[in-house]
Design goal:
eight-stranded parallel barrel, homotetramer, TIM Barrel, globular
C-alpha cells in the first residue's frame, strides 16, 4: 500500500507527505508567494510536498460566496507553481469539471467528500489516469470506503488515496474519528488526514461554514500519531482576510513550528510500528 | 408556501400529497402494474398522487449492484405511466443526467441528498423549469436548507420543495429528526418527508445499504402528525425480491391500511393547526 | 403490557395518559393552582392524569441554580395536590433520596436518565413497590432498555414504564428518535414520551441547559402518532420566569389547544392499529 | 494546572502518568501479579504509575454479569498492592459506596461518567479530600465539564482531574473527540485520556458492552500526541478470559512495546509545545 505521486512515495513506511496551500487561488502572485514559502519549508525538512489550491469552490454554502478565479486562470496559476518550483500540484474537481483539461495540468486529482458516492463521477475522475485523493463523505463509515476505492480501481487506476475530513456529529459540527485512519488502511489505499476541514463547523456562520483553527494542531498531531501517509492542510498568510475557509486555515508563519512537531511525531510513530496492525 | 405540481396543490393547508412507487424501474409491465394499483388506491381516497421511480441508481454502495434499465427505457416507462393513468411522475437526476431529456418527460425532478450542496448541479436542475424536490443531505442541518433553496430560486424557478430523509447518526445509521420538518418551513418551500430512506441503514449490509421496513409506518405517522405537505414512500409488491432498497420498501398490499391511518392523522393535524407556528 | 397506576390503566390499547406539571415546586400555592387547572383540563377531556413536580433538582448544570424547596416542603405540597384533587402524583428520585419517605407520599416514582444504568439505584427504587417510570439515558440505545427493565423487574415489581427523552446528537443537542418509541415496546413496559426534555439543549446556555419550546408541539404530535401509552410534559403559567427548565416548558394557557390536537391524534392512531407490530 | 497525587506530579509540563490495571479485581493473587508487572514496567521507564482496579462494577449492562469481589475483599487487595509495591492506587466509587471507607485505603478516587452530573455525589466524593478523577459523561460537551469541576472544587478540594472516555456517537458506539482533550484544559484540571472505555461499544454484545481492543493503540497514540497529563488503560494477562471489559483490555504482555511508543510521543509533543494554547 505505497503509491507514487510524481516522484514522491506515499505509505506508512514513508515519511509524511504534506499537501498544503491556500483554500482557493486568490491571485496569481499571492499563490506563487505561498508556494515558494511552502517549497522552502518542506525542502529544508526533506519531506515530500504537494501544493494544493482550488480554483472553483463548487459547493459553498451560499451562492454569493467567492468561488475562485475560474478554470482558465486557475489552471494557469497551478501550472506556474508546478513549473517554477518543480513540485506536484493537487486540485479538486467537481461534477461539471472538464476533467481532461484539469488532468493535463495537475498531478493529483481530488474528489470532494459530498461526491464520494457518485459512481460515475468517481470513475470518470479515476479514468483520467492521475493519482486520485478521494475524500470520505461526512456521512460515510470508514469501512464503507472500500467500495468507493474498488469502484475507482475498477477503471484500472491503482493510484488511489483516501482522506478523512471529519464525520457528521450532530448539526453544524464534525468529529475526526482517529479510528477511521486505521480502519481505512483496509481499503489498500494510503490514508491522508485533512486537518483543515476536520475543524470546520459546517454552516456554522449562517451563510458560510465556520471553523476552529485552534483545533488544527491538536487534530494534526493526533492524526500523525495515529499514523497516516499524508497530511492535508490549508494555510494562508492572513487567515482573517482569506476569501474562503479562513476560520480553519493555519497561519503560514506559524506552519514551520507546527511542522517540526508533526514530523518529529511522524518519525517516532513510524519507528515504533503500529500495534493495531498485528491484531 | 403552496406550490402547484401538475394540477396538485402542495402545502400545509392542503391534503397530504403521496409520492410513491418502486425504488427503481424493474420491468415495463411490473412498473405499470404498480402505478395502476397506486392510482386506484389514491383516487379512491381523493388525494394527490405522484408516481415515483428511478431509472438509474447512480450512487449505489457497490458498483456491481443493479442500477436500472438505463435512460431510454426508463423514460419510456415513465412516459407510459404518465399517459396511461394521467398522473404526474417524479424521478431523480444526477451529476451526468441529460437534464433536458428527462425534463421533457417527467413532471417533477428530484435531486439526491448527497448532491444538495453542489451549486452548479442544483441550479442546472432548477433551470429546467420543472418543480424540483431537493432532498436534504444526511450531513446538513435543517436551517442550512435555506441557502440551498435560495440558490435554486435564484434561477427564477419558484416551484421548489424540500425533503427530509434522515440525518447521519453515528456510523451506518440515520435518524429522522421531526424538528427538521417544522424548521424547514422557514425555507418557504413545502416540506416532504421521505419515509423510506429515513429507515435506511447506510452501508449496513456490507456491499449494500440495509433498512428497517418495520419503522416505515412509525416514522410516516410521526412525520404526518408533525405536519408535512407530502409523503414520499417506496413500495414494492414483493420487497424481499426487489432489485434495490427492498429492505426499506413497504409492501404494496399493506399500503392501503397504512394510507388510511396516515390520511386520518393528516386530516386531524391540519384541522387543529400548528401551535409551533404561532411561536 | 398494560400496567395500573392508581386507578389509571396505561397501555397502547388505552387512551393517552398525561403526566404534567411544573418542572419544580416553586411555591405551595402556585403548585396547587397549576394542579387545579390541569385536573380540570383533563377531567373535561376524560383522560388519565398524573401530576408531576420535582422538589429537588439534583443534577443541574451549575451548583448555583435553584434546586427546589427541599424534601420536607416538597413532599408536603405533593401530598396536598394528591389529596385536594384526588389525583396520583409522580416525582423523581436521585442517588441520595430517602426512598421510603418519598414512596409514602407519591404514587409513581421516576428515575433520571443519567442514572438508568446504576443497577443498585434502579433496584432500590423498584423495591419500593410503587410504579416506576425509568427514563432512558441520553447515551443508551432503545433496545438496551430491556436490560434495565429486567433489572427492575428482578425485584418483583412489575409496574415499570420506560420513557424516551431524547438521545445525544453531537454536543449540546438531543434528537428524539421516533423509532425508539416502537423499539422499546419490546421491553414489555408501556412507553412514555417526554416532550419537554427532548427539546432540551443540554448545557446550551452556558451554566444552564437551554431548550426550544417551539418544538414541544411538533415532537409531542409526532410521538403520539408513533404510538405511546403516556405523554410527559412540563408546563408553567409563565415559562419565561420559571425557576427551572423555563425554555422548554409549554405555557399552561396554551395547553388545552395542544391537548385537543394530541388526543385526536391518539384516538386516530390507536383506532387504526400499529402496522409495525405485525411485522 | 499541575496537581499532586501521592508524590506524582500531573500536568502538561510533566511526563505522562500511567493509570493502569485490570478492569476488576478478579483474585487477590492475580491482581498482585498484574500490579507487580506494571510496577516493574513503569519503574524501568521512569514514569509515574497509579494502579487501577474496581472491586464492584455497579453499572453493568446486565444484572447477571460479574460485579467483583465486593468491598471488603476488594479494598483488602488494593491495600496490599499499595503496600507491597509502594504505589498509589485508584478505584471508582458509585452512588451507594461508603466513601470514607474507600478513601481510607485508596489514593485517588474516580467517579463514573454516567454520574458526572449528580451534584450531591460529585461533592460527596470531592469532600473526601483525596484527588478525584472525574470522567466526562458520554452525553456531555467538553466545555460543560467546567461546571462539574467548579462543583467539585466548591468543596475546597483542588486536586481534581478530568477524563475523556468517548462521547455518544449514534447507538452502541462512542467516538473519542481529540478536540475535547484540548478544550478541557479550560477547566483548570489536568486532562486524562481513558483509552479503554473510548473503544467500548456500549451494549454492543447484547447483554454486555463490546469493545474493539485493536483501536486502543490508535487512540492512545492520538491522545498522547494531542497532549494529556495522564493515560488510563485497562490491561489483562488474558483479555479473552477477563471477567469484565475483556474486549477492550490491552494484553499485558504487549503493553511494554505500546508504552515505549507512547512515551516517545509524549516526550516529543511536550518538547515542542502546544500551538493551540497560544491561540
Amino acid at each position: 500500500m505505497t503509491i507514487r505521486v510524481q516522484g514522491h512515495e506515499l505509505g506508512l513506511d514513508q515519511r509524511l507527505c504534506l499537501i498544503a496551500g491556500p483554500c482557493v487561488v486568490e491571485s496569481h502572485s499571492a499563490t506563487l508567494a505561498i508556494a515558494e514559502q511552502l517549497t522552502e519549508m518542506t525542502t529544508q525538512r526533506g519531506i515530500p510536498f504537494v501544493f494544493k489550491a482550488s480554483y472553483d469552490k463548487a459547493n459553498r454554502s451560499s451562492a454569493s460566496s467567492y468561488r475562485g478565479p475560474g478554470q482558465a486562470k486557475g489552471l494557469e496559476t497551478l501550472a506556474a507553481v508546478r513549473e517554477r518550483f518543480d513540485i506536484p500540484v493537487l486540485t479538486d474537481v467537481h461534477e461539471y469539471t472538464p476533467l481532461d483539461e484539469v488532468a493535463d495540468v495537475v498531478d493529483w486529482l481530488q474528489t470532494p467528500a459530498f461526491l464520494c458516492r457518485q459512481t460515475d463521477f468517481i470513475q470518470a475522475v479515476a479514468a483520467c489516469n492521475r493519482p486520485v485523493n478521494i475524500k470520505k463523505g461526512q456521512f460515510l463509515a470508514p469501512w464503507d470506503m472500500s467500495h468507493v476505492v474498488d469502484k475507482a480501481k475498477a477503471t484500472g487506476n491503482t493510484r488511489i488515496t483516501v482522506c478523512e475530513r471529519g464525520v457528521s456529529f450532530g448539526y453544524n459540527n464534525l468529529v475526526a474519528d482517529m479510528r477511521s485512519l486505521a480502519a481505512m488502511r483496509a481499503t489498500g489505499a494510503p490514508v491522508i488526514f485533512d486537518a483543515t476541514h476536520s475543524v470546520q463547523l459546517p454552516g456554522g456562520q449562517g451563510s458560510a461554514s465556520g471553523g476552529q483553527r485552534e483545533h488544527v494542531p491538536v487534530l494534526a498531531r493526533a492524526a500523525v500519531a495515529a499514523g497516516v501517509s499524508g497530511l492535508f492542510m490549508e494555510t494562508h498568510p492572513d487567515p482573517a482576510n482569506a476569501l474562503s475557509d479562513g476560520p480553519n486555515s493555519w497561519p503560514l508563519d506559524r506552519l514551520p513550528a507546527l511542522l517540526d512537531a508533526l514530523l518529529a511525531l511522524d518519525s517516532v510513530v513510524k519507528q515504533h510500528g503500529f500495534a493495531e496492525n498485528e491484531h
